[in-house]
């Protein structure tokens, strides 16, 4: 079946996360993204900090945390800034999990966990010749 209507652009509205402490986790992610959290009761919304960024919404846990995450965030930083970014996030409460530095020529990344154990990656892509 074909769709005769054009597909409108799809953008990322927000990342939604459950948290044991939504305000504390929002504060950590504000350090990651540069966003400014806004508390409303036991929920926290943080709009995107800049064009091309993403918003985040934090809410209280509704059940036990799964043993394994089915997805995680891959964040991209400019080439040459991954190490400094990782060091900054470690200073603010992230935990280092592992690095992938030589397996792929088009990307290097470090996998971290936020203060509640949610894994995320900080990646950098080397410049492409001619671009």
Report on this model:
The structure is a single chain. It contains 2 helices and 8 strands. The N and C termini lie far apart (39 Å). The protein has 2 domains: 9-61, Signal recognition particle alu RNA binding heterodimer, srp9/1, CATH 3.30.720; 71-131, 2,3-Dihydroxybiphenyl 1,2-Dioxygenase, domain 1, CATH 3.10.180.10. The strands form 2 sheets. It has a 4-stranded mixed sheet, covered by helices on one side. A 4-stranded mixed sheet has the order 5-8-7-6, with helices on one face. Strand 7 and strand 8 form a beta hairpin. It has 131 residues and is an alpha/beta fold. It is 17% helix and 31% strand.
Give the SSE layout:
Blueprint: E1 14-19, H1 22-33, E2 38-40, E3 43-46, E4 55-60, E5 73-76, H2 82-91, E6 95-100, E7 108-113, E8 119-124
Parallel strand pairs: 1-4, 5-8
Antiparallel strand pairs: 2-3, 3-4, 6-7, 7-8
Keywords summarizing the entry:
131 residues, alpha/beta, Signal recognition particle alu RNA binding heterodimer, srp9/1, 2,3-Dihydroxybiphenyl 1,2-Dioxygenase, domain 1, 4-stranded mixed sheet, 2 helices, 31% strand, Glyoxalase_6, VOC_core, Glyas_Bleomycin-R_OHBP_Dase, VOC domain-containing protein
